[in-house]
Amino acid sequence: MKRLVHAVVGCGRVAPNHVDGFSALPDVEMRWACDRDLTTAESLARAHGLPRVTTDVHEVLADPEVDSVSVATGHATHHGLVAAALEAGKHVLVEKPLALSAEDGAALTSLAERAGRVLSVVSQHRYDRVVTAIRDWIGAGLLGSLVSGVVSLQCGRDDAYYAGSYWRGTYAGEGGSALVNQGYHALDVTRWLTGGLAVVGAVAGHTAPRGGMETEDTLAALLRGPQGALVTYQVTVASSITWRTRVEIIGTGGSVLFDLDHPGTLHLAEGNEELRAAAAELASAEVEQAPPGIGYYGISHRRQIADFAAAVRDGHQMIADDRAGLETLILLQDIYRVAGHEVAAPVLSALRS
Ligand SMILES: NC(=O)c1ccc[n+]([C@@H]2O[C@H](COP(=O)([O-])OP(=O)(O)OC[C@H]3O[C@@H](n4cnc5c(N)ncnc54)[C@H](O)[C@@H]3O)[C@@H](O)[C@H]2O)c1
Predict the structure, then answer these.
(1) Taking all residues of the chain, what is their mean pLDDT, rounded to a whole number?
(2) pLDDT for res 294
(3) Is 119 found in the same domain as 129?
(4) For atom 5 of ligand 1, which residue has the closest CA?
(5) Is residue 241 part of a domain?
(6) Within this chain, do residues 200 and 334 fall inside the same structural domain, yes or no?
(7) Which of 19, 71, 94, 95 to mutate to test the pocket of ligand 1 (most atoms within 8 A of CB)?
(8) Distance from the CA of 278 to the center of ligand 1, in angstroms?
(9) Whose Cα sits closest to atom 36 in ligand 1?
(10) How high is the pLDDT of residue 348?
(11) CATH number of the CATH domain containing 232
(12) Do 172 and 114 lie in a common domain?
C-alpha cells in the first residue's frame, strides 16, 4: 500500500481528532502541523510527535511528498485554504462547513473535480454506528414511509468560548453560530437519513446573548422531506448542558429515537419484529473508546478519516463527500434566509455576485 503523507492546517480544538484518526491508520505519515500561531502549531506537534512545524500553509503545499491536508480553521478561511490545497494537487479533508457561501462551496466542488482530488467535508456522525444502522433500516423499508421527525440539540457555550476566539460569534468569521456550527451535525445527519430536506419555516434568535456574540444562539426550523415528512429542528447554544442531541424519525412502520452524543445511543426502536431484532443486535455491539480530546466530538472522525484515506487510494465515493457537504451548506443557508436573520445578508450577497 502506498504511504500517505498528511498535514494538518489549523491546530486548535478539533485538530487532535484529525491527528488521532490519521495516526490510527497503517501506512500514513503525519508530517506537518501548520498554524498561523507558531506556539499552537508547536504544541500540537509536540503532543503527537509531528516532525515539521510551520506558520505558512504554502510551505506545506510546496512539499511534493504531502498527499493530503486537513483544513481545521475558522469557517471564513475554509474556501481560500481548500482552494489553495486543491490547486497544489493535494487531497483535502475540510472541517464543516465546506465554505461560508454556497457559491464558494460549489466552486470548491468543481475545482476538486477538475483537479481529480478527493474533497471531503467532515461529518463524522454520518459514520456513527447507530446512524449507519438506521440509514440501512430506512433503506430496507423497516420504518415504512417517513412521516415525521423531531430533532434537537442543546449545548452550552459560555462567554469565554466566544470572547476568546478570533472567529466564533461573528458573521464574518463563523457565518452564524448555533445552526452552522454546533447544529450542523444534527441537520446533516437528518438530511442524510430522510433523503433530503426543504425549508418550510425558520426563526433565529438571540435568547441569552454572550459578550461580543453577534450571531444567533438559538434557532428553530420546520423542514419537509422528499415524500412530505415534516421535521421540526431546534438548536440552542445557551443551555446549561454541555451537549445533548435527540433525533426521532417516525415512519408508518416504525420509529427510532437516538442521539449523536458520545457514545451515540439508540434509545428506542419500535415497529415490526425485523426492526426490533436489528435494534437488539445493534445494542449488543461493543462500544468503542473515545480518542483523547473533547469527548462530545465523538469517535467517528476515525471512521471518516479511514474512509478518506481509502478514497484517496482507490477513488471510491465517500459517505461524506464534497457534494454532501455542499448540499448541507445550501440547506442551512436556506434556513438562515427563511429565518430572516442578519446572518443571511453575506450569504445572499455572495449568491447574487
Ligand atoms: N466535526 C466536529 O465535531 C468539530 C468540532 C469542533 C470544531 N469543528 C470545526 O473545525 C474547525 C476549527 O474549529 P476549532 O474549534 O478547532 O477552531 P480553533 O479556533 O480552536 O482552531 C483553529 C486554528 O486555525 C488556525 N488558523 C486560522 N487561520 C489559519 C491559516 N490561514 N493558516 C493556518 N492556521 C490558521 C488558528 O490560529 C487556530 O489555532 C471549524 O470549522 C469548526 O466548525 C468541527
Answers:
(1) 93
(2) 67
(3) no
(4) 14
(5) yes
(6) yes
(7) 95
(8) 38
(9) 10
(10) 39
(11) 3.30.360.10
(12) no
Percent of the chain with pLDDT over 90: 85
Do 103 and 147 reside in the same domain of the chain? Answer: no
Per-residue pLDDT tens over the stretch 29-61: 999 999 999 999 999 999 999 999 999 999 999
Q: How confident is the model at residue 129 (pLDDT cuts 50, 70, 90)?
A: very high
CA of 128 to the centre of ligand 1 (A): 22
Q: Return the half-sphere exposure (C-beta side, CA atoms, 13 A cut-off) of residue 246.
A: 12
Rounded CA-CA distance 87/12 in Å is 24
Q: What residue numbers bound the domain in which 41 lies?
A: 4-124+304-320
Residue 219 has pLDDT above 70, yes or no: yes
Identify whether residues 104 and 140 lie together within a single domain. Answer: no
Sheet holding 146-156, edge to edge: 198-205, 218-224, 230-236, 146-156, 238-251, 254-258, 266-271
Name the β-bridge partners of 247. Answer: 151, 258
Question: Which residues sit with their C-beta closer than 6 Å to ligand 1?
Answer: 9-15, 34-37, 40, 57, 72-75, 77, 81, 95-96, 122, 124, 165, 181, 297
pLDDT digits (tens, 9 = 90+) for 259-301: 999 888 999 999 999 999 999 999 888 777 666 666 666 678 9
User: Same domain for 101 and 184?
Assistant: no
Count structural domains, the chain. Answer: 2
Contact yes or no for 273/254 (Cβ under 8 A): no
Neighbours of 234 (CB within 10 A): 19
Tell me, yes or no, whether 131 and 240 share the same domain.
yes
Q: For a pLDDT cut of 70, what percent of the chain falls above it?
A: 93
Q: Which three cell numbers stand for residue 268?
A: 428506542
Residue-level pLDDT at 163: 87
> What is the CB neighbour count within 10 angstroms for residue 80?
14
Nearest CA, atom 18, ligand 1: 12
